[in-house]
Design brief:
Low-confidence stretches: none
Shape: globular
Strand order of the largest sheet: 3-2-1-4-5-6-7
Structural class: alpha/beta
Largest sheet: 7 strands, parallel
CATH architecture: 3-Layer(aba) Sandwich
Mean pLDDT: 91
CATH topology: Rossmann fold
CATH superfamily: NAD(P)-binding Rossmann-like Domain
Oligomer: single chain
Number of helices: 9
C-alpha cells in the first residue's frame, strides 16, 4: 500500500456519487477515511460498505455550510485518528437556468455551498494538514475554466473556486501544503439528478443532462477517483478531465471570440 498506508483522509459529500467513489479510492490505497454528508442514512450505508470491504472508516454527519459542523468534523477526525493528511472538498451541486433568469439570491445560495463551504473547511483543516505536509483537494469543474450556456450560477462559483485554489497554492505551497484543483467534465450518475420544471423552464432539452449538453462521454466516478489519488501522490496542481479540454480553455483565454465559437460548437 506504500504511500497511503494509515494516512487520514476526510471526504465531504461522500454519501453518494463522486464523493463516495473518492472515499473508496483512498481506502483501497490504504488510507483511513472519514466520510461526511448531511444525510445520515445514506452516509451510514456508505460507511457500512467501506467497513464490509475491510477498510477503516469513520462517518460524521455534517452540513458544510454550518461552521460548527465543519469544526466538529475536523476535531472529531483529529481526536479519533490523531491527525489529518487529506481534505477533499467535494460537497457541492450544479445548476440549470438561463443566466438572466438566475436571481441574485440563487447566485448567493450556490456560492455559499460551492465556495464559502470550501473556505470554511479549508480554514479548519489546514493547520492539521500543514503538520503533515498534507493534501487539499478541491473538486471544481470544467465549468470553472469554460463557462457554458444554461448553467445558472454554477460556472461563477467554480471559477471562484479555481482562483481560491491558486491563492492557496501561492501562499501555502512553500509551507508544504499540496493543493490539487480537479476540473472534470460531466460525471456519470446511476440516477440523473431530478430538476424542477421551474429550473428548466425555457431551456432546450439537452440542458437537463449532465454537462448541459456537452458533447463528451460522461466520466466514470471510480476512474476519476483513482486519478485523484494518483495526482495527490504526485503532488500535481491540477487535474483536468478530459485532458483535451485544457486546450479549449487555453484558446478561450488567448481569443475569447474563438473560445466562444468553439464552446458553442462543442455544447
Amino acid at each position: 500500500m506504500g504511500y497511503w498506508k494509515d494516512k487520514v483522509a476526510i471526504v465531504t459529500g461522500a454519501s453518494s456519487g463522486l464523493g463516495r467513489s473518492i472515499a473508496q479510492a483512498y481506502a483501497q490505497a490504504g488510507a483511513r477515511v472519514v466520510i461526511a454528508a448531511r444525510g445520515a442514512e445514506a452516509l451510514q450505508q456508505a460507511a457500512d460498505e467501506l467497513r464490509a470491504a475491510g477498510h477503516d472508516c469513520l462517518a460524521v454527519t455534517a452540513d458544510v455550510t454550518q461552521q460548527e459542523d465543519v469544526d466538529a468534523l475536523v476535531a472529531r477526525t483529529v481526536e479519533h485518528y490523531g491527525g489529518l493528511d487529506v481534505l477533499v472538498n467535494n460537497a457541492g451541486r450544479s445548476a440549470r437556468r438561463a443566466v438572466l433568469d438566475t436571481t441574485p439570491e440563487e447566485f448567493r445560495d450556490l456560492m455559499e455551498l460551492n465556495l464559502i463551504s470550501v473556505v470554511r473547511s479549508t480554514r479548519a483543516a489546514v493547520p492539521h494538514l500543514l503538520k503533515r505536509q498534507g493534501h487539499l483537494v478541491n473538486i471544481g469543474s470544467l465549468s470553472g475554466k469554460i463557462a457554458t450556456r444554461y448553467m445558472g450560477a454554477y460556472p461563477a462559483t467554480k471559477f471562484a473556486l479555481a482562483a481560491y485554489s491558486q491563492q492557496l497554492r501561492l501562499e501555502l505551497g512553500a509551507q508544504g501544503l499540496h493543493v490539487l484543483l480537479v476540473s472534470p467534465g460531466p460525471i456519470a450518475r446511476d440516477e440523473p439528478r431530478a430538476r424542477s420544471a421551474q429550473e428548466l423552464a425555457g431551456l432546450p432539452p439537452s440542458a437537463a443532462q449532465p454537462g448541459a449538453g456537452a458533447k463528451t462521454r460522461p466520466i466514470r466516478p471510480e476512474q476519476l477517483a483513482a486519478a485523484i489519488v494518483a495526482a495527490c501522490e504526485q503532488r500535481q496542481s491540477e487535474l483536468v478531465v478530459p485532458r483535451a479540454a485544457r486546450w479549449l480553455a487555453a484558446l478561450g483565454q488567448l481569443s475569447p471570440r474563438l473560445g466562444d465559437f468553439l464552446i458553442n460548437k462543442a455544447t
